[in-house]
UniProtKB/TrEMBL annotation:
One of its GO terms (biological process) is removal of superoxide radicals. Its cofactor is FAD. InterPro entries: FAD/NAD-bd_sf, FAD/NAD-binding_dom, Ferredoxin-NADP_redctase_2, Thioredox_Rdtase. Keywords: FAD, Flavoprotein, Oxidoreductase, Redox-active center. It comes from Chitinophaga costaii. Homodimer. This is Thioredoxin reductase. Its EC number is 1.8.1.9. GO terms for cellular component: cytoplasm. GO terms for molecular function: thioredoxin-disulfide reductase (NADPH) activity.
Amino acid sequence: MENNQPLEHVHLLIIGSGPAGYTAAIYAARANLKPVLYQGIQPGGQLTITTEVENYPGYPEGIQGPEMMVDFEKQANRMGADIRYGMASSVDFSSQPYKVTIDEDKVITADAVIIATGASAKWLNLPSEQRLNGSGVSACAVCDGFFFRNKEVAIVGAGDTAAEEALYLSKLCTTVHMFVRRHEMRASMVMQDRVLKTSNIIVYWNTETDEVLGDKKVHGVRIRNIQTQETKEIPVEAFFVAIGHQPNSGIFADYLELDEQGYIVTVPGSSKTKVEGVFACGDVQDKIYRQAVTAAGSGCMAALDAERYLSAKGLH
Ligand code: NDP
């Protein structure tokens, strides 16, 4: 969109405010790169929709996800990062300095850009699923499965993530009810095999979820067999949605290499993208690990890569 806003030039622009973005900001600020970070529409990222985080090192008693992200922000702030509310709406990486438009209005130019826009879990979009999100409905078994140990739980999905999460849950929970919408799974054969051989995972084929049941917390789920239209209620205390993630990479598609699922492709072992001086970290480029601690680690890598790049260009 054309506009008449004056340009602001920044040395290093960071887009995104999950563990990757804030960690990049902490490292970049300490290296005197004067980073400006735009938080996006969900400041703090996906962790702000989880409850307790028990697997992030350094919090021996665990911590609430939203609180942890406030800590990340405070730390980046204390180091001198300029943290702003706003959403990158388009980019122009065709020539340097790179241009990033915020909220379809303000244009920023930057010597280097770190992309940390994360990914968003896909949901079924049932009203009951949204209402009980965080009260038994979760899109992350590794984050929340532990709270339902020795309970019955359900999971929807049939890809590698769903298979991996069902297996993870089967080690903690008494029974895992797994709902597959077709007559077969999409997951790799080896993962399917493991799921089908696990005695406490019950697979329901050709099955859709009608409703997650519960008032303040999940106490069951109503499913429907697509072929027979028969419905059934199953008592469970948690409902895990594992139908894939969508990396938030759309605005970069014209400039960066994306894989077939939309994840930004980086040079292995680094945060470098196809465009010199543009780096990517966290879930927007990681479909395998997707943990807060791995995202933070890759944010650190991006800041170090950016620092080296700016030094080599004589810009720092
Ligand atoms: P996928 O896109 O591979 O699978 C999504 C699954 O969810 C599909 O089975 C799909 O069903 C199902 N689904 C989608 N929408 C709905 C819906 N509305 N209702 C019910 N079911 C639905 O996503 P994943 O996250 O599983 O995997 C993403 C990529 O990451 C894959 O390439 C995977 O191989 C990879 N991965 C690799 C791992 C590893 O190597 N260890 C671990 C995890 C992921 P349908 O099949 O009918 O379309």
